[in-house]
Amino acid sequence: MRRLPLASAALGVLALVIASLFIGGYDIGPRSLFTDPDAREMFLISRVPRTLALILAAAAMAVSGVIMQMLVQNRFVEPTTTGTSEWAALGVLLLTVLTPGASLLVKMGAASLFAFAGALVFLVVLSRIALKSQVIVPIVGIMLGALVSSVTVYIASSTQLLQMLATWRSGGFSSVVRGSYEPLWAVGAIVVGLYVAADRFTIAGLGRDTAVSLGLPYRRILFTGLTMVALATGVTTVVVGFIPFLGLIVPNLVSMARGDDIRRNLPWVVLASVALMIVCDLVGRLVVFPMEIPATLVLGAVGAVMFVAMILRQRGKAHV
Amino acid sequence: MRPVRFRKTVVATGAVLSAGLLLSACGESGSSDKGASKGKVTVTTAKGDVEVPREPARVVALDSTSFATLKAFGVKPVAVPKGLLPDEGFEDWKNDSAIKDAGIHHEPKLEAVNASEPDLIIGGYRFAEHHDKLAKIATTIDVAPSDEAEGGYVNSLKSQTETLGKIFGKEDEAKKIVDGLEKAKNAAAAATKGETVFLGVSSAGKIDNGASRIGRLAEPLNLKNVLSAEGEESTSVHDNSGLAPETLAKLNPDWMILLDRDAAVGTEDGSEPVAAKKIVNGMEAWEKTTFRRQDQVIYLASDFYLTEGAQAYTDAFTAVSTAFDAAG
User: Fold this and answer.
1) What is d(CA B272, CA B266) in angstroms, rounded to the nearest whole number?
2) Which residues pair with B49 in a beta bridge?
């Protein structure tokens, strides 16, 4: 009985996945898959990779949000509200300036490395600030992000890369084809990794002192968590650009409904973020057909509204 | 590699020498009067008629579409936005410390412009929004080409060239440039026979709709933009929106004209638009399209997005007519 809601949610997401597979610029229908070799070819070149990229990127960002929220013990953090994504962007830009011909894998390495450094900087700054309110934490993160971003924009503008930076950051999924999305499988592994280590993160989320007294190697958990977030952020940033707010909205909505048990929440978090990501992408694909609005833009608009709504809700509570 | 560099050096040295000769020639006749005795000339600009000094000695050139024309006239500016100079052909301006850097349009160095004591500032285009501030320093004209101008962008390239010719007393040279552009345009219009085309811009490893940037190029030509079915307006509005490769495969244009914004990033010397070529040839989804199968892709010069002047359009039209004639 208890598994029933999850199963029906999975069916709903499956319906969205199917919609994503059969909507697009090239005419592909369930029937033409069997009759038209060209359509079948295009299905494999374009539709399947795009849908897989949507699923993997959404899961990666949502999971990154969950990890960060546990480690920082704050509901408002995720890679785009802690400056982590901005650091990844700086990493890629510097690499583009220094060695323009660098391979995708090297770019991802640089992005992940910078994301890791950025997450550390965030934690260090946070530990030196007397926090009076939960809301201060994402504000510190967004400020740090803006600082890093201004450095990035300065470098881009003095090297004629401003347009490249803008195109790349607003990325989206329109250009995803076979051969360009595969690195995202690595972040799929991170999702599995989190599921395995979920209980530890739940305990780490109770705070350092509690975690240590329960016999948890807190530092190691922190390090593992940051590495996972940095990898997920670095890879998704390079492949599809910034994915704003996803890691913030979804885990929070799930926690509101179900409490804070990561292991039991994780399937819901992943399903819900995949659903949201696909819906945003479908909206982007359909409103200006045959051209597209990046899914990340649609998500940014939805996410910003929900972010503000969540902060206002939080203010109503006594402890803020 | 060596012969190329050698050739470049010769060209650069030659250009410096000739610029120097011209400057000294100017200096002889104009040193005593600082342009005043040459009188004034009234020209039509985007902001109405403006009276400017005839054959000004100290010119600040900000509108990048005018650089090549000024160079052809033998004008050596006292300040230019060095960050907007194309990589090739303007080394003498870039490396000359006597020419001040006017900054780029995001961050103009107005003090440098002021310190260069100009008689005339050629503003407009990227610097259009700084017009009022520039006008306080010296007479500032905006004769930059514009889509809104009568007859469209390409036509306004002609009036820009003619106006500059009038100011610098180089009417003959101006006519030569305008005739060249006209001839190349007509040849391109004659070579195109209603084929479908996709106008693209490649940036950050992606190819998007570039109608708002290079649609002007196709305007005088006999081509049909595959994305213009719902009206010209809508294609350029969603310029940076993105376009899935499969959509382009479905639209299957006969030709593709591509502005490579990645060119400067992808290669060390930036001379060949390699980056875009890599994307086009590597795109699996396009294997069955006409433009790929018949190799009908025109790559604009890698510095086209910086130049966009009469000479750049002449070259682009020539590239179009050459490619279409070759395809038959």
Assistant:
1) 9
2) B44
Interatomic CA distance for residues A283 and A288, integer angstroms:
9
Residues 6+ apart with CB under 8 A from A44: A178
Tens place of pLDDT for every residue, chain A, 320 residues?
467 789 999 999 999 999 999 999 899 988 899 999 999 999 999 999 999 999 999 999 999 999 999 888 888 899 989 999 999 999 999 998 888 777 888 989 999 999 999 999 999 998 888 777 878 888 899 999 999 999 999 998 888 788 888 888 877 898 899 988 999 998 888 888 888 888 888 888 888 888 899 888 988 998 999 999 999 999 999 888 889 889 999 999 898 888 888 888 999 999 999 999 999 999 999 988 888 888 988 999 998 898 888 888 876 664 44
Residue B248 DSSP code: H
The ipTM (two decimal places) reads 0.85
In B, minimum Cα distance to A175 occurs at: B244
User: Quick check: B137 contacting A, CB < 8 Å?
Assistant: no
Give dist(CA B59, CA B79) in Å, integer: 7
Q: In sequence order, what are the residues at sequence separation of 6 or more whose Cβ sits closer than 8 angstroms to the Cβ of residue B81? A: B62, B64, B101, B102, B103, B104, B105, B108, B126, B127
Residue A162, both tokens: 């401003």
Task: Establish if B315 touches chain A: CB-CB under 8 angstroms.
Answer: no
Name which of B241, B282, B283 is nearest A293 (Cβ-Cβ).
B241
User: Which positions in chain A touch B83 (Cβ < 8 Å)?
Assistant: 158, 160
Q: Which two tokens stand for residue B298?
A: 């025109």
Q: Are A277 and A57 in contact (CB under 8 A)?
A: yes
